[in-house]
């Protein structure tokens, strides 16, 4: 018992194997017995890798080995990863994963299986990479009704925006660097179009608000529409542009949840989160504001969270609290466009007098921060003008 099988040995999986080898003494001290990585399921040719002797190609070896108590999934997606995770749980093995797509789309079902089988499905690494976030949320903040969760949860887009704004790098070059550094998804459009952030938001909402939020229900906008002009004008108005995943209770049980670029005031801590770093602000009705900050992507930070989850399944045994959430409650979800907010607008064709307080006029364009209004009212005020950009302002 108490041996580990790793599914996939790419960027994050390689990090898990490296931590298990290099920090073996710390791991042993932490749980009171050696923590052995017995198998690595990998299709690639791994001869020459230091763990080549552990590589196998058949998942059923892991599934049928009673010595394996934990399976660490680093394959990604909801194809074979989902199939193997489900089989591992049904075989009575705990699973740890960094797979946000799988948890966002199938978490409800997989957690029910884990509960039924009295094993654990832990996914700390799925949101915020190496930042301790989900465990503090579900343990340390469990006395709270969570009112709001708002954060920078995609390292790739934060890296790209930072490089564009601070170093004048163009979008394609910044994205290529993020890929080289191992931050980006296999298909980086999931980063750039906000889908990765949206999946992470679903997991946060599931845990914070207690009912399943299906990914397809979350309005999602990425960073393709953010231009250097927008960033420069935002800067002059005293704001930074950040891709935020944001969910907020409105009244009692209803809430909004969406991903979009926002203008964030310079004195808000989220405005200073640069590069691949992530930060998530959580507001509870008892604790007030909290902020979790750290490396949101990359091999070792993500692997760090996964190995901690491996240890947790061993250390806490069956005394551990099961994480779960309830089925979807569609009536709770409110369209964010219907909720009044301030907006940043850049447009041409004349300035709207209602926006004059916070307005810059330059090269034929007007850039303004509007008073709070819903999107339909904003569009009515801009009728007949040529709209270049519309972003929310974080209030
Ligand atoms: N592509 C993701 C990011 C990896 O850039 O944040 C971590 O989930």
> How far apart, in Å, are the first and last alpha carbons?
51 Å
Basic shape: elongated
> Over all CA atoms, what is the radius of gyration?
22 Å
Helical fraction: 25-40%
Note the main sheet: 9 strands, mixed
Strand content: 15-25%
CATH topology of the largest domain: Dihydrodipicolinate Reductase, domain 2
Count of β-strands: 15
User: What's the tally of helices?
Assistant: 13
- When the domains are counted, the total is 3
What's the average pLDDT? 94
Identify the bound ligands.
L-homoserine
**What's the multimeric state?**
single chain
Helix/strand layout:
Elements: E1 3-7, H1 11-22, H2 24-31, E2 36-41, E3 55-56, H3 59-63, E4 68-73, H4 80-90, E5 94-97, H5 100-117, E6 121-122, H6 134-140, E7 146-152, H7 155-167, H8 171-180, H9 189-192, H10 195-209, H11 228-237, E8 239-251, E9 254-265, E10 277-284, E11 288-295, H12 299-315, E12 343-348, E13 359-362, E14 365-369, H13 375-381, E15 386-393
Parallel strand pairs: 1-2, 1-4, 2-3, 4-5, 5-6, 9-15
Antiparallel strand pairs: 7-8, 7-10, 8-9, 10-11, 12-14, 12-15, 13-14
Helix pairs in contact: 1-12, 4-5, 5-10, 7-8
Residues 129, 154-156, 183-185, 191, 196, 296-297 line the site of L-homoserine.
């Amino acid at each position: 018992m108490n041996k580990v099988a790793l599914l996939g040995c790419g960027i994050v999986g390689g990090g898990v194997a490296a931590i298990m080898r290099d920090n073996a003494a710390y791991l042993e001290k932490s749980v009171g017995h050696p923590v052995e990585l017995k198998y690595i399921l990998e299709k690639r040719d791994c001869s020459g890798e230091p763990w080549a002797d552990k590589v196998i190609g058949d998942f059923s070896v892991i599934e049928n080995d009673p010595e394996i108590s934990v399976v660490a999934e680093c394959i990604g997606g909801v194809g074979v990863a989902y199939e193997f995770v489900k089989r591992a749980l049904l075989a009575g093995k705990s699973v740890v994963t960094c797979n946000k797509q799988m948890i966002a789309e199938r978490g409800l079902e997989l957690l029910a299986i884990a509960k039924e089988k009295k094993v654990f499905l832990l996914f700390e690494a799925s949101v915020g990479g190496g930042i301790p976030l989900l465990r503090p949320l579900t343990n340390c903040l469990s006395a709270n009704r969570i009112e709001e969760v708002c954060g920078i949860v995609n390292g790739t887009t934060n890296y790209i925006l930072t490089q564009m704004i601070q170093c004048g790098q163009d979008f394609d070059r910044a994205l290529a660097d993020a890929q080289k550094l191992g931050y980006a998804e296999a298909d980086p459009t999931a980063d750039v179009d906000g889908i990765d952030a949206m999946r992470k938001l679903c997991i946060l909402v599931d845990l914070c608000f207690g009912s399943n939020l299906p990914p397809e229900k979350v309005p999602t906008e990425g960073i393709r529409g953010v231009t250097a002009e927008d960033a420069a004008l935002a800067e002059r108005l005293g704001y930074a542009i950040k891709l935020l995943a944001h969910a907020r209770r409105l009244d009692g049980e209803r809430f909004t949840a969406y991903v979009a670029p926002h203008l964030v005031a310079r004195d808000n801590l989220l405005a200073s989160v640069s590069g691949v770093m992530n930060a998530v602000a959580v507001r509870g009705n008892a604790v007030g504001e909290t902020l979790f900050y750290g490396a949101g992507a990359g091999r070792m930070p993500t692997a760090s969270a996964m190995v901690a989850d491996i240890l947790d399944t061993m250390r806490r045994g069956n005394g551990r609290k099961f994480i779960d959430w309830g089925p979807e409650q569609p009536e709770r979800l409110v369209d964010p466009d219907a909720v009044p907010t301030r907006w940043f607008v850049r447009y041409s064709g004349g300035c709207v007098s209602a926006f004059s307080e916070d307005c810059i006029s330059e090269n034929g364009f007007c850039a303004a921060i509007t008073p709070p209004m819903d999107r339909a009212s904003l569009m009515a005020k801009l009728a007949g003008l040529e709209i270049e950009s519309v972003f929310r302002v974080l209030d």
